[in-house]
Amino acid sequence: MATTPRTPGATDPAPPDGHRPRDEGRAGGDARARDNVRVDDGTRARDTAGPSADRLLLAAARHSAGRTTAICLLSTVTAGCALALPAALGHTLDLTLGHGPSPYLWTALCAALIGAEVLLEALTAFVTGTTNARAGSWLRRLGARRLLAAGPHHASRFTPGDLVTRLTGNAAEAGTAPTTAATGLAALITPLGGLIALAFIDLWLAAVFLAGAPALFLFLRAFARSSSDSVSRYQRVQGELAARLVEALGGARTVAAAGTARRERDRVLAPLPELSTQGRRMWQVYGRAVVQGGILVPLLQTAVLAVGGVRLAAGDLSVGELLAATRYAALAAGVGSVIGRLNSLVRSRAAARRTAELLALPAMPYGTRPLPPDGPGRLELRGVSVTRGGCEVLRGVDLVVPGGTTTAVVGRSGAGKSVLAAVAGRLTDPGSGQVLLDGVPLTEADPVQLRREIGYAFERPALFGDTVGGAVAFGAYAPDGPAVEAAARAASADRFIRLLPRGYGTALADAPLSGGELQRLGLARAFAHAGRLLVLDDATSSLDSVTEVQVGRALVGEVRAGTRLLIAHRVSSAARADRVAWLENGRVRAVGPHEELWQLADYRAVFADEPEDSAEPEAERADGTGAAR
Ligand SMILES: Nc1ncnc2c1ncn2[C@@H]1O[C@H](COP(=O)(O)OP(=O)(O)OP(=O)(O)O)[C@@H](O)[C@H]1O
């Protein structure tokens, strides 16, 4: 038996055709691999959710309104100090050169202004950092909460790598918008104030500066445009690389088995040249900006200084005023920081758009109606239709599973069995129709009670928890040790768990599990949390026939009694059930006892491809009902 190190949540990508395994991440909706924003009706999710991105940024600003206001005040006062300093320095210089009374008071004022500026800048940086972190984590929580509320089917529109990028980098970048806007105001005050101060000192100096301003403006605008473009392209390619890598790692075994490691490596790394191009472009844009800025800004300052020198020689300016003027010219040239902030706002908005797309996921509606106490677990599907990828995969399904009975759902591959299981356990909602548990529509039921009352086991369970025992106990509530062990016994998992180095206390990371062992742990988890309805979605497919029969018996005798819905591929599973619902092309073709359906050639043909090793260990009768109940 192949043994693989257990990686919680790791699943192989679905094979291109044929029977596809069900896993918890899929849960009724395939992650449409390599097509991260494709939605059900075949259209692409909007890449331009402008208004909702803006609303999200406004909400983030409201969330951190107090801190953002503080940052705005702090940076405005800092700008005030920066603007007052050149005038004070100039005046102090004039006093020192003997044009007035003692300069000590002014020197002290200069020192105070410098000290205040440094302190305020440090304080602003501190508050900005913490505000950004808080806003980012708030956005991240919003996104994650909505993702969970939307249910697995809707979440599967996004690939895991893409989701990680949206919830980490994008949320963090969007979270910086409020502080960028707050400091942007001050960034505007400083160059404007510098220009006005320049005009106050001497109109000629302001005129010289303004003459060079268009060139400065054009240069800054070009920088903002090309840098924002290259940065966003770079980020997009980075996200694509991450998505490909996550996908390849998830399917590492398939890749190894197919011997396509080299091809897969090439596919993962295919965006690298584009990444390199965009990276180079980013640095080129930056380097060009440094050179151009390094020439233009000193040129402007030199022009102001030259004209100032002439005005000084003519006696129209004092030495102190000339000193102040050069400083104000430098401050006025700092208009670049405004453009830089605009640039970050543009990037934050783009990032917010990607976060907002998560928030646009429809949340599954829930109600507060309690399920009737001691209800038998009667499951009813009324006219249930489900559309996936533009096709109706369930069409007007009517099905009643009486409380306390077991119904096996059979059908050819792609008939809609897993989607039906997902609808029955409320992992996804039907497009039309209704699902009721003990007479309560699932959409109106209390979600907490629903999760306690519906147990689920999958073909490829994802394990959560620190230890093997913890993984079995993981769920809406934590069963105690004896209940965990009883569930593991029922799932035929107890024996192999006890052989692990620390038994139930073995860390999951130290427990290499075969496919069958993994399935048995998933079954044990479902048994430990069995409520009035238990849905087993092909959850015994990797078990050998003997173990499967043992688990089937235990399910009847040792697990809390209730209604069972089994997705079955084996004759033996169908034969053990009280009734069989036979699905064909998304419709219920027939419902009845296996023995009766077995008379139909089409029904027998459903199991025609059944592998030999799934035959019953006991002699099977010609009608396929030899399975022990
Ligand atoms: N998210 C999705 N997007 C598009 N099509 C989907 C999606 N989920 C399921 N389908 C399609 O719906 C149909 C029914 O899928 P389902 O997984 O329920 O089949 P199944 O009967 O369980 O098949 P199998 O026995 O092979 O697992 C299939 O054609 C499948 O490709």
UniProtKB/TrEMBL annotation:
- Example GO molecular function: ATP binding
Q: Where in the cell is it found?
A: Cell membrane
Q: Which UniProt keywords apply?
A: ATP-binding, Membrane, Nucleotide-binding, Transmembrane, Transmembrane helix
Please indicate if the UniProt record lists Nucleotide-binding as a keyword: yes
Topology with respect to the bilayer: Multi-pass membrane protein
Q: Where is the composition biased (Basic and acidic residues)?
A: 17-47
One Pfam match, by short name?
A: ABC_tran
List residues of the ABC transmembrane type-1 domain: 70-347
Tagged with keyword Transmembrane: yes
Q: Where do the segments described as Disordered lie?
A: 1-48, 609-629
Q: Which residues form the ABC transporter domain?
A: 379-610
- Superkingdom is Bacteria
The record's listing under InterPro entries reads: AAA+_ATPase, ABC1_TM_dom, ABC1_TM_sf, ABC_transporter-like_ATP-bd, ABC_transporter-like_CS, P-loop_NTPase, Type_1_exporter
State which residue ranges cross the membrane. Answer: 70-89, 104-127, 181-201, 207-224, 285-308, 328-346
What is the protein's name according to its record? ATP-binding cassette subfamily B protein
